[in-house]
Amino acid sequence: MKQNMAQSSDQERQSALTRHCHWHPEVETALSCSRCGKDVCTQCMVQAPVGIRCRECGRAVRPPTLDVPTGYYARAVAVGTAIAIGGGLLWALVVQTVFGRIPFLPSLLAVVVGYAAAELISLSVNRKRGTGLAWIAGGSVAVAFLVAWMTLGFNFDRFGSFGLLFIILGVVIAVQRVR
């Protein structure tokens, strides 16, 4: 009889120590959320860099760098437009001067315009990043080329034999720096 009472008392203690998943009460678990302390089973747990989290605490949060407010897009468009016009006119000026006779220099300016566009747009939006900003930066490089091309009288030969390749490279650099 004493043995039965001892066994039942051990079972009661063990059942009191047994924890169950917050979302699946029929599932026993030894895991708990490292943030709120809720018991979670292996189906409900979310592996986070700081340990196991429950469904609610483990939700993915967008990094602040990628959270671009609407007003920042207006700034980026304004800076991108200034780069497109100013960079295009400067590009055309360099091509028309003595520097335009140096091989690859007119084409290489596409890379410079791409890097400058990305950096200035990034600075204007407090180093935020995003797909929309990438489109604006890439578009500003493309429009800068169009401005230079129109200023030079639609003469593509003045940009060198690898001109298109360098223009694409300039767009890619601008996009990658702010995406």
Strand tally, please?
A: 6
Q: What is the straight-line distance between the termini?
A: 74 Å
Strand content: 5-15%
- Which runs of at least 5 residues are low in confidence (pLDDT < 50)? none
What is the arithmetic mean of pLDDT?
86
What overall form do the CA principal axes indicate? rod-shaped
How helix-rich are the residues, as a percent range?
Answer: 55-70%
Question: Order of strands across the biggest sheet?
Answer: 1-2
User: How many domain units?
Assistant: 2
Largest sheet: 2 strands, antiparallel
Secondary structure class reads mainly alpha
Estimated radius of gyration: 30 Å
Count helical runs: 5
Order of helices and strands: HEEEEEEHHHH
Please outline what is shown here.
The protein is mostly helical and 179 residues long.
Give a description of the structure.
The structure is a single chain. By secondary structure, the chain is mostly helical. It has two domains: 43 residues, no CATH class; 115 residues, no CATH class. Helices cover 56% and strands 8% of the residues. It is built from five helices and six strands, in the order H-E-E-E-E-E-E-H-H-H-H. Strands 1-2 form a two-stranded antiparallel ribbon. Strands 3-4 form a two-stranded antiparallel ribbon. Helix 2 packs antiparallel against helix 3, helix 3 packs antiparallel against helix 4 and helix 3 packs parallel to helix 5. The termini are far apart. The mean pLDDT is 86.
